[in-house]
Amino acid sequence: xxxxxxxxxxxxxxxxxxxxxxxxxxxxxxxxxxxxxxxxxxxxxxxxxxxxxxxxxxxxxxxxxxxxxxxxxxxxxxxxxxxxxxxxxxxxxxxxxxxxxxxxxxxxxxxxxxxxxxxxxxxxxxxxxxxxxxxxxxxxxxxxxxxxxxxxxxxxxxxxxxxxxxxxxxxxxxxxxxxxxxxxxxxxxxxxxxxxxxxxxxxxxxxxxxxxxxxxxxxxxxxxxxxxxxxxxxxxxxxxxxxxxxxxxxxxxxxxxxxxxxxxxxxxxxxxxxxxxxxxxxxxxxxxxxxxxxxxxxxxxxxxxxxxxxxxxxxxxxxxxxxxxxxxxxxxxxxxxxxxxxxxxxxxxxxxxxxxxxxxxxx
Length: 363
Description:
By secondary structure, this protein is an alpha/beta fold. The protein has twelve helices and eleven strands.
């Protein structure tokens, strides 16, 4: 009897397994695709194409790096990620870059942070003059460290950040017919400002700040509307500003704050493995920039010298004058932030703390 019962149970289990095996194809282990482990499973082989807005010209240091980034994405994703870079504002005007991306008009963009005053208020602290950073690597590291701070989270929630970064510090250009070796030499000269807080700074140095678009410098200097001002090396290159000036003051004045972002919905619509590639590509992108920007700086200094532009660095006394004149700009920024509900001094102290920390790392 026991043997008969055991036989019946065995036959019943075999029949049950047979039925299950016939109807449940999900129980079959997936085939090995040979895809590298990115921490997320490959869910499809769809090709995802997205348009990246680049408002500057192709004659810049960053454009070739963006093109290399697009190629890098394609290689890492086996052709499943296709990034198309549109230069010269082909997808919209510079002031609309951020809103166009948030609204889905574009899939991503590269642009400057302080071009959009008040949109990224906490991040803008690193765009104050004379904060003491000694290289672009320091500002890039500080900006990305601050991205983890609670006060930064809200202002970036509408975009997916690929990379925040800086480049070489802005020199001060002069077409004043004389060398500039102290604040006294700057008195009364019309100079382009780069953001609201450089107005206070330049005024403190005795200059007369004038608003000028980043692509209007050549014409404004040629017409005598300005006699120079704050222009980054990328602008010197793209607009050939070395043809219009006679003196270039190279110092750790202000560092540009730039952003490379994607539309949130576009990013979230990607499979997890491709999201991982996008995120890793931001680190790759940042790693390429110091060489590109330092090479550009050296090339532009050579261009200036070839065009009989006197290139100098400020002595310690002049640096002290510029730093003292920057203090009211810092105070203005703190007051503005306090009025908008932030603890401005705490954010400024945090930024300067990161700068001091990374100055020791990137000596």
